# Entry
Amino acid sequence: MAGSGKSYLEGETGLWSWLTSLDHKRIGLLYFFSVAFFFLLGGIFALLIRLELFSPGALFPADMYNRFMTYHGAVMVFFVIIPGIPAILGNFFLPLQIGAKDVAFPRLNLMSWYFLMTAAVMALCTLLLGGVDTGWTFYTPYSISFKPATILMAFAVFIAGFSSILTGLNFIATVHRLRAPGMTMNRMPLFVWAIYSTAILQVLATPVLGITVLLLAMENIFNIGIFDPALGGDPVLFQHFFWFYSHPAVYIMVLPAMGVISELVTTYSRKTIFGYTAIAYSSLAIAAISFLVWGHHMFTSGQSEVAAITFSVLTMLVGVPTAIKLFNWLATLYRGSIQMTTPMLYTLGFMFIFTIGGMTGIYLATIATDIHFHDTYFVVAHFHYVMVGGTLMAIMGGAFHWLPKMVGKMYNESIARMSFVFIFIGFNVTFFPQFVLGNMGMPRRYHDYLPAFESLNKISTIGSWMIGFGFLIALYAIIQAIRSGSPAPMNPWGSKTLEWTTASPPPHENFLTTPTVTAGPYEFK
Amino acid sequence: MISMFIAMASASTFMPPAATQVAKQLNHLYAFMLISSVISFIILVGGMIYFVYKYKRKTANDKTPYISHNHTLEFIWSFIPFVIFMACFAWGAYIYKEMRTFDENALEINVYGKKWVWEFEYKDGRKITNGVDANGKLEPATMVVPVNTPVKLLLTSVKLSPEDKAVLHSFFVPAFRVKQDALPGRYTALTFTADEKGLFQVFCAEYCGTGHSSMMAKIKVVSKEDFDAWVLGEEAGGAPKEMTLADKGRAAYAKWACIGCHTLDGSPSTGPSWKGLWGNERSFNDGGKAVADENYIRESIMDPNKHVVKGFEPNKMPTFKGMISDEDITAIIEFIKTLK
Amino acid sequence: MSSNSQHHHFAHHFESEEHEYATSKEGVWLFLVSEILMFGGLFVGYIIYQHMYPQVFHEGAMHLDWRLGALNTIVLLFSSLTMVLGVHFSQLGDRKKAVTALAITILCGAIFMCVKYIEYSHKIHEGLLPGAWYTGETHGLSNMGLYFSFYFMMTGLHGTHVLGGMCLILWVLLRANKGEFNSHYYTPVEGVGLFWHLVDLIWIFLFPLLYLVG
# Structure
């Protein structure tokens, strides 16, 4: 495997060579296409949900709506946002950014993708078995229904979790062992730091989800009673187990997004990042604290008051490193040379949306206000502001930022900007009214509602169409770039990280000569 | 000055009417948070927009200063949010404590969550559930409570039929800012003191299946006089007088043959007497202790040998699990409460 | 990563054999950490329910035969020793001894599973089954099935790991038999060995928790 200089896209071609490729860049693209497909699927479910809620009354029967709601959540969480940034951008750029030739375990990397595909096929097969209507949270005892669809879905989540663990494991080992000479931990790009913190969460939290859904499956097959109050089990324990994973999972979804934003904000301000250490270590701090806050999902569940108060104060602590990051990005803009490219627009959109998402998190961490907002549309709006507004904005920004490197072609700036305008405005039109609906007390997971909630729901649905349209434009911009974009230079944005020091698209070996690092990642001097 | 802002903010928040003291307090907290967030939003996003405008790239070779960090600034923007967060936490925890303070003399009402209706059972035996009005339209169950009187709701989730499975529900009254999950096989409690008369909406906030979004009820807050009149059944809609809940409990006491082992006069028999049981601290053979509350009594009926009271033999009482209904258990608990 | 020749060629993204070895070993350790956390969830559940239903867990444990559990403990401990020897001889490139040691390890795994089979069939015969299926003695307690839910979940998941471990050992045994391992390259044996020790370690916790608390 001597350095041939050929790009990773050349050489072996054909579907089979892609499906058996051990090259992290090709695997990254495999993830890109599959996650994009799942996103389309989850997006269709989202549009169906919003269509039903356009006016009170039943367009779809309640049971069908409940399935849309479940599949939207399950597909988006387990197959889009969790694998999203780490598996696509992380796979592609983590080795490049630390000057490695590949991830530590290329075969395991490919296997992770196959695990995710297996899980996805299983999850889709549940549709043939009548569908799952438990919500993506699978709360017991509702989810103990002895339906084969629920059982299959539990196994699908188990296997998706396995894929996530193996990806995380691979990235940790890569970061620990494969950094180029001179690439000390404190010289790593912040995207790598974010993926690294995420990987730790993936390895430590996902197994608990694994055992939880395994128990849920056993509960449905063998009626073992651990979560079934009729047999002496405790349904609240299921919630504890579920959120012990799923709260850190929120950070699995959003930490990589923060990493992308850190890269973008410094590149397009052409200025070194403000507070490198603070941002890097706040990722680790968020990862660590996120293990101690799961009970804030359960303030009304009947857990003890002492527990509620403890979880509330611990949750507040997560807010601090999050605020630090926002202020650091702001300070990076100060006296920069700001270029309003599409990735930068998405970055600013991220900061706008994430500020709202983060601040509303405080409303939900405060016990008394959470008692009112819990399980209302306020929560729905909050987590969409964080996870969709945050993560998806970052995915889009990152995708356009790195597209020239990935495919060696430039995209059309004005079409891409148009996608941002629709997605950003559509997003706020969709989800901001949901905060107000939550204030008014509209509970979530309703397929029908009181007339008082009608106008805001209508606005929200109209916004959802704008988002959908925006993503179609983005898709067009990407396809257009791949088909007829002008060839990308090595470093179109004047970035300082290592992936821009190799060809666009990179050769199979990433670097023809292993780079030697002598300075930090953002030395704009 | 600050309080004026808070008052202004709380008037424009789209929150539902605040019909309890707790709800009014919460509005203040909410207003404080809203003001803090608007200020932070202006600093962050306003600053962002200003910088983007001011430092727009001018030439292809703009030079930028190398600013890596600033400890003072970093300390300030870590510490100030921390202080605000802690203030929110403390204020929220304080109101939460108020929410969870139960008045001993509160009017107690049992609430059953079923798929997909709420049912209310008063101590006088009156049971309220969904009805149908003259036009055949569904009328949600309406709980009637007196104004300015503490009310305690005992929530549990029950099966609709023997083949059914009881699931989680959550009793949510937006105007009172209270919410509590109803769990199968366990009692949870909720309290409120409505200080405004009116008709208030109740939702189910925990996803529970097909009928989740129609699982609604109402709470009608009336004057004390009207409430007394309603209790007497004078007002239309009041169900005809039945046995009181405690009477039902006494009947269940005979029906399930509790009478064979549990006396009502304080003298121990095969099992402990029920007189004075309520609220008493029980010591067990295994050295454990527990206060006799709703969940303790329920557990003693369903799993009698789990905790055997000191001085009594185990394995004397069979389990009533799978036989006795949730309604009977609630009635027995009420009956025991009357045996002071 | 692997090759059939005597001299192992490390993958192109590593600098040296040692580099590849250390990285692979770290990967195995990280995997073991996630395994521990998965079992950890069950252990935490066990502790919570044991606290909630002390008599159920006491009576449940009385139904287990601690002698069979102890026998299995000894078998697994011994198998860990033979596994260590398997790794040791693989490293020395002593094909015969390595294969023998690994074969004994598999045999120990098989004995363990046989004993488990005897235990399981006894439980099933007596109706000592999880949750709703429990038809054994109730001891006046309502939720005896809960103990056996944990018993079967924990030993079942562990048993699956034993079976998985046996397959992995068979895989390295076949490779050892072909003479693929030597002092330059024995990573797979080492990794499988670590996994087997973890399986053993988990049993060391399961045994007192399930058999001896009564």
